[in-house]
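Exercise 7.
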Amino acid sequence: MTMEDPDIKKCRLSTVTVDDVIEQVMPYITDPKDRDSASLVCRRWFEIDSETREHVTMALCYTSTPDRLSRRFPNLRSIKLKGKPRAAMFNLIPENWGGFVTPWVNEIASSLRRLRSVHFRRMIVSDLDLDVLARARLDELEALKLDKCSGFSTDGLFSIVKHCRKIKTLLMEESSFVEKDGKWLHELALHNTSLEILNFYMTEFAKINAKDLESIARNCRSLVSVKVGDFEMLELAGFFKAATSLEEFCGGSFNEEIGRPEKYMNLTFPRKLCCLGLSYMGPNEVPLLFPFAAQIRKLDLIYALLATEDHCTLIQKCPNLEVLEARNVIGDRGLEVLGQCCKKLKRLRIERGEDDQGMEDEEGVVSQRGLVALAQGCQELEYMAVYVSDITNESLESIGTYLKNLCDFRLVLLDQEERITDLPLDNGVRSLLIGCKKLRRFAFYLRQGGLTDVGLSYIGQYSPNVRWMLLGYVGESDEGLMEFSRGCPKLQKLEMRGCCFSERAIAAAVMKIPSLRYLWVQGYRASMTGQDLRLMSRPYWNIELIPARKVPEVNQLGEVREMEHPAHILAYYSLAGERTDCPPTVKVLREA
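Solution. The predicted structure, written as tokens, is:
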């Protein structure tokens, strides 16, 4: 074997340029922020990013135009588009606000020929949109997610499953639609053998057949996740028997009969099942989970009909739990058990229970006691969203002390208690933010007096890496907002509600946060014209107002009442300019 001449080797290696290397490396860079940074180095790196970028998420569909996106990234394989602001999930945005997918679908059909995965969230989707998408992508479409969307019917779904017979993921969770028939599911059952994920959780399908689900399970041997609506659980027995690869199931419905507590005792689940959420599960059905409780990694109890002690009994048997979703009926006692038994917990979401459910016994509330026990016991937590009835600075300090991996923290202080033990929370939020250095998303929704101007300044000062923030009922004056705006160097999205700030202060604060790309505010000291908001006018910055309005709402007694919705501000960067589909309920604020 002869050694290569060093001079020849040196000459050969010198022909390899940095651009040659980056061409090989760039496809392996998946983080969008790393991609963005690399594309700014030089024109060639920009071109390489353009040619090799495979996924794009747009937090608001109006920030660019479809043709601009397809020119910038012609070889996309997946896309995620968000339409209406997040507040739409709480019925705070007019239904006709916008967020239409039609121009995006048309661009996908004509230009984005390599696209395999499409995710629309909070957008308006028509049957024609679905038909155009289906005929354009055919068997190449592998995933379609209609996430909290509206505007379509089962005809559109039928077109998708008829033309896209190799689809692997089909999701319609929490979408609203017109159900004409169940043909779409039957078509899926007859012709698809590739399905891996089927999700129509929290929807109101009434004309589909459980036998079709069973056929899908038999035909699609890679089916690992199914989430359904209110199917009677006994009707799903055949499905569970056929779904041998199933790892996740949510939905169903237990309908107990008086005198038959053993009705469901013979129901069995697939042996690989480890992620579970059973709707309307009562204390009599909890033992169904005991045989495989030790393998459960994800548990959704939001729609379970369990008292505090029932939660404790089940949680004690789930030592490998990593994700838990529940209502606040879990109580401090449930969080204490969680801290004792579930050391691997990474994500926790505790929603507010219905006030009229009658299940919130003396233990069935969440307060500082439960938060302290949770922080001390579940130190691997990365995500925590919780509604609390009481809170102290000490409990927030505990979170900052023990939860060093926390990336996403959201707390809402309920208004059911007249007196809160320890307000304001200035020192507690400072300790939490100082301790949780990995925080990227932060929500703090309190009540009047919950946070002073000093506390608001702490949030700005100690949030060096937070990119999304929701603040509710915080601060005392415009000065507090201005102090806040001097911090938050990486903040991109800011949402505020129920605050005391003037339009002038809001505009001035926005101008002090150069990283900010998106602002939503409801409940502020609004003027008739919004004139002072023009202080934040600048190129590519769209400002939209939704004036105060009365909205009919149905209360718990079924009575319709008109509720006053305060004015909204929505402002965002856009390369597309002013949008052209604003409804009469939206006022565009133009530069003077």
